[in-house]
Amino acid sequence: MLYAELQSEIEKLQVANTPFCVATIVDGRGSIPQEVGAKAIFTTDGLHFGTVGGGKLEIKCRDKAAELLTANGTEPNFFARWNIQKDVNMTCGGEVAMYFEVFRPESEWNIVVFGAGHVSQKLCRILIELECHVLCIDTRQEWLDKLPKSERLEAHQVDHFEDGVDLINPADTVILMTMGHSSDVPVLKKIHQTGLSLPFVGMIGSDSKARIVQKELHEDKLPDTFIDSIICPIGDPEVGDNTPPEIAVSVVSQLLRMRQTSKADQPEEI
After folding, report:
1. Alpha-carbon distance 64 to 39, whole Å?
2. What is the pTM assigned to this prediction?
3. Distances 125 to 2, 97, 115, 148, 247 between C-alpha atoms, Å
4. What is the pLDDT of residues 117-139, one digit of tens each?
5. What percentage of the chain's residues is helix, strand, coil (to nearest 5)?
6. In this structure, is the dihedral angle defined by the CA atoms of residues 30, 36, 42 and 46, taken in order, positive or negative?
7. For position 14, what pLDDT does the model report?
8. Mutual orientation of helices 244-265 and 118-127 as an angle, nearest 10°?
9. Strands 46-50, 200-203: parallel, antiparallel or unpaired by DSSP?
10. CATH number for domain 110-265, candidates 3.40.50.720, 3.10.450.50, 3.30.70.330, 1.10.630.10
């Protein structure tokens, strides 16, 4: 196995915010299934790349990697020395020392963008350069097809914009950039119906659009606490003008400020 290939796979997993574990044979005595230095990458789905010899040793390493990846502990590394016959139940008469390194994303920053129009196209192109994962949802496949190709960006076509709410997770940042308030409002209503307490829900538009949306939500008896939590207009008021590229830059500026504030508010580890 070439080191460059291994590193390439590791980088792909890191970009995709996928937790993984690298198992390495660091020492061996007698007959062992693979040479010292052999590596295998495991995810929660099993063997991802490489090999430490296959067979029962690889299964044992897979199971140990899965245990480490699903554990709540913070210790990222694990060392084990196994007798191939007694501990692994193989006929080889040797002994192998394994080192497991667990890699977890520090914190996944997931951004869900409803709408793949002109501003969204510019916004997604900036966001994929940051350490985040972007899910762009639209009813129009032809607009989704115009989005850049990136492991950090997922495009999803739906029949109705509000159908995309089913793809939102509680920690997601949500941005509404659909064709207008008539398609934004059903999304907002469904977000409220799900009971999700999201860190940020922002909607592109003017102050007048914000008032129209607020009026409709009030008429549908949605609580003030939810309505007041919706940010509209979105974007940093001190950045950019009214063109799609500069609106996108303004929105990214606001998101970065929000993330920085959120990090500053987190208690320090003791």
Report:
1. 14
2. 0.62
3. 32, 45, 14, 7, 13
4. 999 999 999 999 998 899 999 99
5. 40, 25, 40
6. negative
7. 84
8. 50
9. unpaired
10. 3.40.50.720
